[in-house]
Q: What sequence folds into this?
């Protein structure tokens, strides 16, 4: 199978991080929360490479400011919200086998059955996933990946990382990212030209969905790096706990 330029970029982004940190750190225990004096919960952040992470965050932010955000805004301006919604539905549905595989790997048999039903209904009645009749039938969408599966199997999240081009991750998420790519149908389309265009569309569509969140970070966060780090870790830990 021809090698996709996106796949080469992914390998180049992942390899330095894995070699620099070392996979044994994945075995660290996950102590995630401490209590504040007022009874609230304070997130414990394991960020030993904060200086490096901040430098990569600035690089990514510059790339986003001058490339990704303008492209996403153009996409958002060009396509009406209903059209964007159909495209998002199609892309989510296309990659949904990844969710089902991880349902099974985590022992969520009932959820796997419901998710298979969702995939079948949306792929047929929903015309390849452009429409979402499954939600109306009570088959709600789930998000599962190999990072969550590794956590269920007892693998610690390891330190927080910011990867070039790929953004925030934990070491556990970084190590399992190639598995997500290997299983996700989007990255395994046989025709390289179609595959790369689909991946590019997915990247732009995802960035367009985050335009409002990005504006909120820019306007309200005194330290955008710390804000993004906290939000990312909270979302990932919440996903693991569900």
A:
């Amino acid at each position: 199978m021809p090698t996709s330029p996106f796949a080469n970029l992914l390998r180049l982004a992942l390899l330095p991080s894995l070699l620099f940190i070392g996979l044994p750190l994945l075995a660290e225990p996950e102590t995630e929360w401490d209590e504040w004096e007022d009874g609230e919960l304070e997130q414990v952040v394991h960020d030993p490479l904060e200086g490096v992470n901040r430098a990569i965050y600035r690089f990514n932010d510059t790339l986003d400011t001058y490339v990704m955000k303008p492209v996403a805004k153009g996409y958002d301006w060009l396509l009406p919200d209903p059209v964007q919604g159909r495209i998002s539905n199609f892309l989510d549905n296309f990659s949904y086998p990844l969710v089902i595989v991880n349902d099974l790997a985590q022992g969520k048999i009932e959820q796997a059955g419901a998710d298979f039903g969702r995939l079948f209904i949306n792929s047929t009645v929903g015309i390849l996933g452009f429409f979402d009749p499954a939600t109306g039938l009570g088959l709600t969408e789930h998000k599962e990946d190999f990072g969550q599966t590794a956590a269920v199997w007892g693998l610690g999240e390891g330190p927080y990382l910011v990867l070039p081009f790929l953004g925030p991750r934990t070491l556990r998420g970084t190590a399992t990212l190639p598995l997500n790519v290997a299983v996700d149908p989007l990255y395994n389309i046989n025709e390289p030209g179609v595959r790369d265009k689909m991946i590019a569309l997915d990247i732009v569509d995802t960035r367009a969905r985050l335009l409002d969140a990005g504006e909120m970070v820019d306007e309200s966060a005194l330290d955008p790096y710390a804000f993004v780090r906290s939000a990312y870790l909270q979302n990932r830990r919440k996903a693991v706990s569900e």
